Amino acid sequence: MKRRDISMGDIAQALGISKNAVSLALRGKSGVSDALRQQVVDKAREMNYLSPDTATRCILALIPQRIALLGEGMFFQRLCLRLNTCAREQGVVLVFVNITEEEEASPALRPKFDLKAFQGIMTIGNLSRDYCLSISERGLPYVSVDHSYSDLPINSVSTANESGAYCLTQHLISLGHRRIQFIGRPQRTSSLFERWTGFCHAMADCGLPAPRNLMVDAVSHEHDSESEFPLVERALDAMDELPTAFVCGHDLTARNVIAALGRRGLRCPEDFSVVGFDDILPHDPAAIGLTTYRTPVSRIAAASISLLLSPHADAPQRIQIYGKIVRRDSVKDLRPEARLEKSVKA
Question: Poorest-confidence range of 19-23, 71-75, 233-237, 283-287?
Fold first, then answer.
């Protein structure tokens, strides 16, 4: 039968399972076992549902299960949706699989996966170095999306994190801010480390000291945005003097900073300024509009799929894609001329 004659219902009937189980398996969602997921992929290929070129038109997409609990979860949800769309535009199906912390600690991929069924592998987010190294040695095209290791020769695609944080910091400096603090956990991911580095470079280039990072990782394994809130408060408590502005590792951290200082009776931007990163917060008419750096999710997704499907280059490529600053209402202009203009208007 031709692909257009086949539906998920046909695959479900052939396997004696529900249509919902087929949908979960093909979309890489939880709720089905690895063995059943592989059976569904094999049957979809056999019935010519996935692609006429069934042997080479599937990509295994591995994502840390903990990302579902991360504060950055909204960003990765958006990224995965775009990756899936870009893959289908190329006639490819992404098979998403969550990797548990136990599996990540073991360098071996799940034995129930037949890697010959896949054209390539991508990892999304910060899987461990040893796990990524193991994948790169499997002999399949491999791309790491939104994460990289400087000492591993693997293909990677991410936003220009260092440049983005540099531009945000320079933006604050151009508006008269000199006491600026970074809030984030650069030890957690390469993206956050690059943003911390960009902040430090921008401060140094303007002859300003970069304050030490007062935010440390939690002892527990809870990684949601609420568990980050006490870390933000602890960092604020450790400051001898409140800065005029904060550069935050991502938007959710910025939101936590605004909330924590709000509990202390301080207002943004009247009493302090904040910038975030990623531009993922939903619109809230009651909240202050956050100045941030918009991560180009669609272009990252398109470049990742293109790189994975392209012929092997002589050397691995590390692609960084530039976003842009989105200026909203969370930054106060401290320049003397701005204050003068405001007083004249008043």
Answer: 71-75
Number of domains in the chain: 2
Per DSSP, the residues of 58-116 read EEEEEEEGGGGGSTTHHHHHHHHHHHHHHHHHTT-EEEEEEE-HHHHHSSSPPTT--GG
Indicate if 193 and 257 belong to the same structural domain. Answer: yes
Which pLDDT belongs to residue 163? 98
Same-domain pairing of 78 and 153: yes
Antiparallel, parallel or unpaired: β 273-275 and 93-99: unpaired
Domain co-membership, 246 together with 312: no
145 lies in the same domain as 260: no
Instruction: Please check whether residue 324 is in contact with residue 292, taking contact to mean a CB–CB distance below 8 angstroms.
Output: no
Residues 9 and 116 in one domain: yes
- Alpha-carbon distance of 300 to 171, in angstroms, equals 24
244: its two tokens: 């005029």
* C-alpha pair distances (Å), 59 with each of 92, 105, 142, 149, 257: 7, 22, 10, 22, 39
Burial of 114 per CB tally in 10 Å (0-12, 13-18, 19+): exposed
Whether a cis peptide bond, with omega within 30° of 0, leads into 186 is: no
**The pTM of the whole model exceeds 0.85:** no
Q: d(Cα 152, Cα 141) in Å, to the nearest integer?
A: 15
Cα-based distances in Å from 183 to 179, 186, 213, 270, 333: 13, 9, 7, 19, 20
Give the chain's mean pLDDT: 86
**In this structure, what CATH number is given to the domain that contains residue 101?**
3.40.50.2300
